[in-house]
Design goal:
By secondary structure, this protein is an all-alpha fold. It contains 4 helices and no strands. The chain has one domain.
């Protein structure tokens, strides 16, 4: 096996270990917010390792560039999706959001 093959295999296995570990953690935790925290390593580290493995193996061909595109999309969308899901869970549990803030401190104003 060539050095490129070894590096690609190591990146692939590392990415898969992170994804499988996150999946096992999500099966163990009961709270949706705890589960949501485990999506970050899978989307950020796991997918990056897997996509990096493809880039190492394929180079900057169409497949390699597609893998880079997938990694960029997952890395940029994951925080936005996580915040949206967390806010939806919090609202479902009874939390409220107010648009009014104290200009001096930036803290939310109390309702009259």
């Amino acid at each position: 096996m060539t050095a490129t093959g070894v590096v690609s295999a190591v990146l692939l296995v590392a990415g898969l270990v992170v994804v499988v570990g996150s999946c096992v953690g999500m099966a163990v935790f009961d709270d949706p917010l705890d589960r949501m925290h485990l999506t970050t390593p899978a989307a950020m580290l796991g997918s990056t390792g897997i996509c990096a493995s493809v880039v190492v193996r394929e180079g900057l061909s169409a497949d390699g560039l597609a893998a880079i595109g997938v990694a960029v999309i997952l890395i940029s969308v994951n925080p936005l999706a996580g915040h949206a899901v967390a806010r939806a869970i919090a609202i479902r549990r009874g939390a409220t959001w107010s648009d009014r803030q104290d200009e001096a401190t930036g803290a939310p104003e109390e309702e009259p």
